[in-house]
Amino acid sequence: MPGMHDTYFDHTVTLVCQHDEQGAFGVMINRPLQLTVGELLAQLDITVEDPGIAGQTALTGGPVQSEQGFVLHNGDREWDSTLRIDDNTSITSSKDILVDLAEGNGPERFILLLGCAGWHPGQLEEEIKSNSWLTCPAEQAILRRTRLRNLIPTQMTVIGFDFGLNRTGVAVASLLTGLATPQCVLYAKQGQPDWQGIDKLIKEWQPKQLVVGMPRKLDGSDSAMKKTITRFCTALEQRTGLPVYTANEQLSSREAEQRLRSARQAGRKRKIRKEEIDQLAAAIIL
C-alpha cells in the first residue's frame, strides 16, 4: 500500500468479499494469529479431533469486529450466514460452520479468521485512486487444497525442508501471503533422500526457491549435521535447478512439538507423531 498512512495494513493481502453502493467488506489473508484453530474453537467449548484442522493457524481478518469469527471457504455448501464471493468462494460467520469444521463435516478448503476490514461508500475507491492499494483480480487458485486443508496461493511458492537422515519434513509457503503450511514427510530410501518424492513436489508446486533448515548448537556453533545437510543442498540445487537457501532451525523441532502439544490440550486426544513434528518444523523454518 504505497500511499497509505495507516500502518495496520502494511504488507497485507486483502480479499474484497463484497463491494456495492453501501461500501465494501473484505478480509486480510496473510496475517497469522498466535492461535491455532483448535485453541480458538476451544474458547467456544468446541472440540476439534482432526489434528490437521486443530493445528492449523488462524488469521487476523481485520480491525473491524475483531472478536467475530469468519470462515473463508470453497463455495460447495452454504451455512446460515454464508455470503458468496464468486462461484467457487464464500465466507461464513455463523457458529454452525465452526461446529461442522470440528466434527469433520465442514468445507473442504478454508481459513478461519478473526475480524474483517470495512469501508464506507466511496472510501475504497478513493484509497485506490490515491495509490493506497495495489489491486489484482482474485484467483480461484487461492482456495487450492493442501494436506491440512489450508489456503495457500500457488503463485510465488517456496518449499521448505526439515532434513533428517530417516525423515524429511516438508512445508510449502507463499511469498505473496507469508503463510507456511505443513505438507508431508519424505522417508529416506536406502540411505538416500526420496528424490522421486521431491521431484513430485517440485512439479506440483513449481516453487521459485527452496529453503533447507540448518541446525545449530545452542551456543551458535555448527552441528554435526552441517556437512550432510550441505551435501543435500548441493544435490537439491543441481537436481532442481532452483536456488537453495539455508535457514537457522536451532529450535524449530522443539517449537513444533510445543505447538502440537498446545493443540492437543485444546481438544485433540491422540498422541503426537514424529512425522507431524517434522512437517510443522519445516513450516516454522519458512
UniProtKB/TrEMBL annotation:
<dbReference type="GO" id="GO:0006364">
    <property type="term" value="P:rRNA processing"/>
</dbReference>
<dbReference type="GO" id="GO:0005829">
    <property type="term" value="C:cytosol"/>
</dbReference>
<dbReference type="InterPro" id="IPR005227">
    <property type="entry name" value="YqgF"/>
</dbReference>
<dbReference type="InterPro" id="IPR003774">
    <property type="entry name" value="AlgH-like"/>
</dbReference>
<dbReference type="InterPro" id="IPR037027">
    <property type="entry name" value="YqgF/RNaseH-like_dom_sf"/>
</dbReference>
<keyword id="KW-0963">Cytoplasm</keyword>
<keyword id="KW-0690">Ribosome biogenesis</keyword>
<dbReference type="GO" id="GO:0016787">
    <property type="term" value="F:hydrolase activity"/>
</dbReference>
<keyword id="KW-0540">Nuclease</keyword>
<dbReference type="InterPro" id="IPR012337">
    <property type="entry name" value="RNaseH-like_sf"/>
</dbReference>
<dbReference type="Pfam" id="PF03652">
    <property type="entry name" value="RuvX"/>
</dbReference>
<keyword id="KW-0378">Hydrolase</keyword>
<dbReference type="Pfam" id="PF02622">
    <property type="entry name" value="DUF179"/>
</dbReference>
<protein>
    <submittedName>
        <fullName>Uncharacterized protein</fullName>
    </submittedName>
</protein>
<dbReference type="InterPro" id="IPR006641">
    <property type="entry name" value="YqgF/RNaseH-like_dom"/>
</dbReference>
<dbReference type="GO" id="GO:0004518">
    <property type="term" value="F:nuclease activity"/>
</dbReference>
